[in-house]
Amino acid sequence: MELRWKLRFKNYSRAYNLLKEALENDISKLNQLEQEGIIQRFEYTFELAWKTLKDKMEDDGIILDKISPKSVVTEAYKDKYINDAQTWIQMIGDRNLMSHTYDFEKFKVILKSIKEIYLPLLTELYIFFTKEQSKE
């Protein structure tokens, strides 16, 4: 039976690649619906990222006291699964903001952050999981 983190990683991998593909376009030239689509892809890619991370850490024997994006990211940084907890926390904040606001000026700022700041972090995590998967 395949490990839970590996099953979730398959979904993360698909979501990550769809987000990456969408961000290959010049986001300033996308219409509002296309920009909203990128935000949606970011949201579900982020959800799969932290949940896959949680599953991998638990599989490695780490006991998590709390299960929330911030607590998982904090523990992941402490245990050296990720290198930049501060930017991950910023990503959590932007993800939460986009889930509850429809301010299109903020959308544009966060779209830029997704492309320039968050995608590289999601890429690092994708590479990490790919390497971990090949070890087993």
What does this 3D model show about the protein?
It is globular and about 45 Å long. The protein is an all-alpha fold and 136 residues long. 28% of the residues are buried. The longest helix is centred in the C-terminal third of the chain and has 32 residues, at 104-135. The protein has one domain (4-135): Four Helix Bundle (Hemerythrin (Met), subunit A) (Up-down Bundle), CATH 1.20.120. Helix content is 77%, strand content 0%. The mean pLDDT is 93. Helix 2 (32-59) runs parallel beside helix 5, helix 3 (69-78) runs antiparallel to helix 4 (85-100) and helix 4 crosses helix 5 (104-135).
Characteristic terms for this protein:
single chain, about 140 residues, mainly alpha, Four Helix Bundle (Hemerythrin (Met), subunit A), about 75% helix, globular
Total beta-strand segments = 0
Q: Bin the helical content.
A: over 70%
Beta-strand residue fraction? under 5%
C-alpha end-to-end distance: 13 Å
Mean residue pLDDT: 93
Radius of gyration: 15 Å
Annotated CATH homologous superfamily: Nucleotidyltransferases  domain 2
Number of helices: 5
Instruction: Report the uncertain regions.
Output: none
Q: From the 3D coordinates, which CATH architecture would you assign? A: Up-down Bundle
Helix/strand structural class: mainly alpha
Oligomeric state of the chains in view: single chain
Shape descriptor reads globular
